Amino acid sequence: MASTQFEATFARAAFPCFDEPAFKANFTIRIIREPRHIAISNMPKVKTVELPGGLLEDHFDTTVKMSTYLVAYIVSDFLSISVYAVPEKINQTAYALDAAVKLLDFYDDYYNIPYQLPKHDLAAIPDFQAGAMENWGLSTYRETGLLFDPDKSSASDKLGITKVIAHELAHQWFGNLVTMEWWNDLWLKEGFAKFMEYISLDISYPELHVDDFFLGKCFDAMEVDSLSSSHPVSTPVENPMQIQEMFDDVSYDKGACILNMLRDFLTPEAFEIGIIQYLKRYSYQNTVSSHLWESLTNICSSDDLDEGRMKHREFCAKRNLPSGASKWQSDDELDVRAVMDTWTLQEGFPLVTVEVRGREVRLSQERYLKTDDPSLTEGFLWQIPLTYMTSASNTIHRFLLKTKTDVLYLPEEVDWVKFNVDMSGYYMVHYAGEGWNSIIRLLQHNHTALSGNDRANLIHNVFQLVSIGKVRLDTALELSLYLSRETEIMAVTQGFGELVPLYKLMEKRDMAALENQMKGYIVDLFRGLIDRQEWTDSGSVSERVLRSYLLLFACVRNYAPCVTKATQLFNKWKDSDGTLSLPVDITMAVFVIGARTPEGWDFLFEKYRHSMQMSVKSRMKTAMTVTSLQDKLKWMMEQSLHGEVMKTQDLPGVVVSVSKNPHGYKLAWDFLQANWHTLIKKFDLGSSTISHMVTQVTNQYSTREMLDEVRGFFGSLTEETGSEMRCIQQTYETIEDNIRWMDTNLPLLQAWLNKRSHKVAHEDL
């Protein structure tokens, strides 16, 4: 097969063109092929002409006015039901087709603009570096992002596939119909499509409970955005490497999180009206960020509203009634641009410090930054849409913080306040004075007084505040004790997300005793929840995703009941030559235990090689990277580079997974260095593939020796071989932050765990 991927700067390699997003044109495509192949493109085929010598020429209809990066064509032997795939996997396309129909209907309605082309095909590409691509009328996907087998795919596979399709289809309007003027504003389409994955699924697929997972995006964004090497959401770029680098967590995840904050701030109705105005006003054109802000301002006084919908006219009629101050405590029309410029034109995010004294709440803001150079946090100021609730009322109160410090007055004294309700805002909160203690008391005695998202948000904030010395590690650990009663997915996974990295740092240093103590603490904390998991596929999507997660953790951590059960199941499965049907949610735990022995590993690999189910293959692949058999780990990385038995697209995942394995981290770092020149040729400088490998392979080092070794390697590169990439700075900063964390907190961690095991021992007597 042959298939194109033109974003961002590759159309010029296929045909002469003004290859920049603002040069929109109509494209008429003809492709000459052999009769044994088919050809597809953005538009429907108008006719096929027979040429002398038995070749065929397909003529495609002329496209609408569009950017070069969205042109696409494929020549292949694929079969199709509107979803194209290799013939032997065509039976796994039904779910994607159904989802695409449902989601296109949703967007037609949400944007109030009908889909612009006569058709939309989806194609599953067998080896594809990009996760997926929104080519107008012909979106392309990895097989794992599109193919679904109802018997073999898991709940998280279904969620993942539906989200990817929702993302690419959101682009058919946001990106394709209205396109950013230049790549500096890439976030306009990517942040928006990432955000729409959640809005569209929330309405079209309520049973997938997608709102249980949105916070994770904001935590991911904050991880890169808390380093001084971060960049503003909208940032100047000139060359292809810098353009590639824009495809990162800041453009996608931070973009989505600030849009979510804005929607909460304006109300979902007002946000939707503004989005429709923006799309109608700029159809077939190019925009910059300020065009979006203008469309979201004064939404009810726009001429476009007349042909809008009844529900929007009603919304505006209600809104124009005199109702006293609006909920953001300001009478003037909101200046969306002034607020949002502070979130898109400066990098980083604010830390809001809250101190309650009686009825008075003192607020101050500063940039949250992991650094030992305080001068780097100066000169930043955000307009922050604060939300808060208190022990005295369930109402969500709102306040726009525009200044460095401010004071709020509560109607009465309260036991606790919680800011950033459900984490709808992209900021962290520090509760000064007695603030954290009152939250810890609340979580210990009545944690369900707060939502699961609020609890996840508190776990995240308290541990992140340890990193910058605002909170003592003991305080964060005391808060974590309540997790023994936690059951909601986002809070549980965030608990793991803050505690597990602590022992991951230790695994790469010689401190087995403390490492094992820490691992023991985490297993103890979640033991009750792990013991309650059934080894079946029952429950909601969130319960099922949580089950897979917990059982995998328990097995990797050698929790005896889990290992025994997984071993029995693996042996049964192996004895049946892989025909026994295991519950999907538990396969990962079972495979990981099986891959520990050479025979088990080889058996898994044989099954991997012949499997047609992408989701099963991907679980087998991960399990094979978790083994302690070093020769196997090395061999897997080499095979992915080869790209025959294992696909090249999977190489980054394999290398990163090996780097997280205590028996493999040196191998992954050596592999990255030894094959650097091949990798940057294959995957391109600045690509998210390369930066993901660079940061993930190195981000668990915490010694000066390793920092020197990492600097030694990256410092020896030239500009042509990647020395200017942002991910290298991110790597240095992350290791420096790890070193600071370990220097400060290791003794405290040791003391706290000792004190706790002493206390537990006494309770047992």
UniProtKB/TrEMBL annotation:
<keyword id="KW-0645">Protease</keyword>
<dbReference type="InterPro" id="IPR045357">
    <property type="entry name" value="Aminopeptidase_N-like_N"/>
</dbReference>
<dbReference type="GO" id="GO:0005789">
    <property type="term" value="C:endoplasmic reticulum membrane"/>
</dbReference>
<keyword id="KW-0812">Transmembrane</keyword>
<dbReference type="GO" id="GO:0006508">
    <property type="term" value="P:proteolysis"/>
</dbReference>
<feature type="active site" description="Proton acceptor">
    <location>
        <position position="168"/>
    </location>
</feature>
<keyword id="KW-0735">Signal-anchor</keyword>
<feature type="domain" description="ERAP1-like C-terminal">
    <location>
        <begin position="416"/>
        <end position="736"/>
    </location>
</feature>
<feature type="site" description="Transition state stabilizer">
    <location>
        <position position="252"/>
    </location>
</feature>
<feature type="binding site">
    <location>
        <position position="167"/>
    </location>
    <ligand>
        <name>Zn(2+)</name>
    </ligand>
</feature>
<dbReference type="Pfam" id="PF17900">
    <property type="entry name" value="Peptidase_M1_N"/>
</dbReference>
<dbReference type="GO" id="GO:0005615">
    <property type="term" value="C:extracellular space"/>
</dbReference>
<dbReference type="InterPro" id="IPR024571">
    <property type="entry name" value="ERAP1-like_C_dom"/>
</dbReference>
<keyword id="KW-0325">Glycoprotein</keyword>
<dbReference type="InterPro" id="IPR001930">
    <property type="entry name" value="Peptidase_M1"/>
</dbReference>
<dbReference type="GO" id="GO:0043171">
    <property type="term" value="P:peptide catabolic process"/>
</dbReference>
<keyword id="KW-1064">Adaptive immunity</keyword>
<dbReference type="InterPro" id="IPR034016">
    <property type="entry name" value="M1_APN-typ"/>
</dbReference>
<feature type="binding site">
    <location>
        <position position="171"/>
    </location>
    <ligand>
        <name>Zn(2+)</name>
    </ligand>
</feature>
<dbReference type="InterPro" id="IPR042097">
    <property type="entry name" value="Aminopeptidase_N-like_N_sf"/>
</dbReference>
<dbReference type="InterPro" id="IPR027268">
    <property type="entry name" value="Peptidase_M4/M1_CTD_sf"/>
</dbReference>
<keyword id="KW-0256">Endoplasmic reticulum</keyword>
<dbReference type="GO" id="GO:0002250">
    <property type="term" value="P:adaptive immune response"/>
</dbReference>
<keyword id="KW-0378">Hydrolase</keyword>
<keyword id="KW-1133">Transmembrane helix</keyword>
<dbReference type="Pfam" id="PF11838">
    <property type="entry name" value="ERAP1_C"/>
</dbReference>
<dbReference type="GO" id="GO:0070006">
    <property type="term" value="F:metalloaminopeptidase activity"/>
</dbReference>
<dbReference type="InterPro" id="IPR050344">
    <property type="entry name" value="Peptidase_M1_aminopeptidases"/>
</dbReference>
<keyword id="KW-0472">Membrane</keyword>
<keyword id="KW-0479">Metal-binding</keyword>
<dbReference type="Pfam" id="PF01433">
    <property type="entry name" value="Peptidase_M1"/>
</dbReference>
<feature type="domain" description="Peptidase M1 membrane alanine aminopeptidase">
    <location>
        <begin position="95"/>
        <end position="300"/>
    </location>
</feature>
<dbReference type="InterPro" id="IPR014782">
    <property type="entry name" value="Peptidase_M1_dom"/>
</dbReference>
<keyword id="KW-0031">Aminopeptidase</keyword>
<keyword id="KW-0482">Metalloprotease</keyword>
<keyword id="KW-0391">Immunity</keyword>
<dbReference type="GO" id="GO:0008270">
    <property type="term" value="F:zinc ion binding"/>
</dbReference>
<feature type="binding site">
    <location>
        <position position="190"/>
    </location>
    <ligand>
        <name>Zn(2+)</name>
    </ligand>
</feature>
<keyword id="KW-1015">Disulfide bond</keyword>
<keyword id="KW-0862">Zinc</keyword>
<comment type="similarity">
    <text>Belongs to the peptidase M1 family.</text>
</comment>
<protein>
    <recommendedName>
        <fullName>Aminopeptidase</fullName>
        <ecNumber>3.4.11.-</ecNumber>
    </recommendedName>
</protein>
